[in-house]
Amino acid sequence: MSVDDKSNYAPCENLELEYLNIGADQQELVKVDSYIQGAEALRQDAITQNNFAVADSFYPGVRMAISDAYIVELVRNFQAVIGNFFKLDIRTIKSAASRYSIVTCQPEDLKPMQCIPHFDAPSKESLAVIHYLCDAPDSGTAFYHHGETGYDYIDKGRLGKYEQSIVKRFQDPMRQPSGYICGGTEDYSEIASFGAAYNRLLMYRGSSLHSGIIRPNYNFDPSPETGRLTITSFIEFS
């Protein structure tokens, strides 16, 4: 069955949806288990195409295009959630895109900014989504609180203070980050974490501080068949 077929994106009958507010800032997050009926069709599509390439300068891995049907049906499936829980209007979407993604970058090859939690956009008018097409219990996604500023998310009003704190840290040779962050550190405390479970989806504000959970025993497998295959999406609102 083609991944363009709408039936792939029908929610599973046993779908489990949980609404969460995490951290001191009570950031909204939605966790969905058993998301869509066509998860295996998407995984097979990634395996068959397997045209992954090194991604942008920040994502620590490889990515590949996915059918536009994915993001269209994602927005359709979550229209009520986006409106009622995140208080965003899908009629004001400026851009929306999805890609297959696999983390493959070795810890020693990371840039300093890849070693600390990040945000996808300095705006609460954005949503990030990760959909796991793998079972990797020791991996997943974690969310963080920055101790010095007290921030769980970064918007334009917080960006300057947060950047000043990061620059100050990086200027101290004794406080240079290295490797993937796993759990709390001197600068960040973990406020929530979610394992990588097959057909699990997380939706959260693009401004939330977060990071992939990449532990020392992670295999950095670039194969969509045996690696940490996900679909990552980003939706920006006006």
Could you please describe the fold and organization of this structure?
The structure is a single chain. The termini are far apart. This protein is of the alpha+beta class. The longest helix has 16 residues, at 156-171. Helices cover 18% and strands 32% of the residues. Strand 3 and strand 4 form a beta hairpin. It has one domain: Jelly Rolls (Sandwich), CATH 2.60.120. Strands 1-2-9-6-11-5-4-3 form an eight-stranded antiparallel beta sheet, covered by helices on one side. Strands 8-7-10 form a three-stranded antiparallel beta sheet, with no helix packed on it. The chain is built from four helices and eleven strands. The chain has helices spanning 39-49, 68-77, 79-84, 156-171; strands at residues 16-22, 27-33, 53-54, 61-65, 93-103, 126-132, 136-146, 188-196, 201-205, 210-213, 230-237.
Strand content: 25-35%
- The count of domains is 1
> Might you state the CATH topology name?
Jelly Rolls
CATH C-level: Mainly Beta
Order of helices and strands: EEHEEHHEEEHEEEE
Going by CATH, the architecture would be Sandwich
Number of strands: 11
Summed over residues and divided by their number, the pLDDT gives a mean of 96
Class computed from helices, strands and strand pairing: alpha+beta
Number of helices: 4
Distance between the termini: 35 Å
Alpha-carbon Rg, integer: 17 Å
Helix content: 10-25%
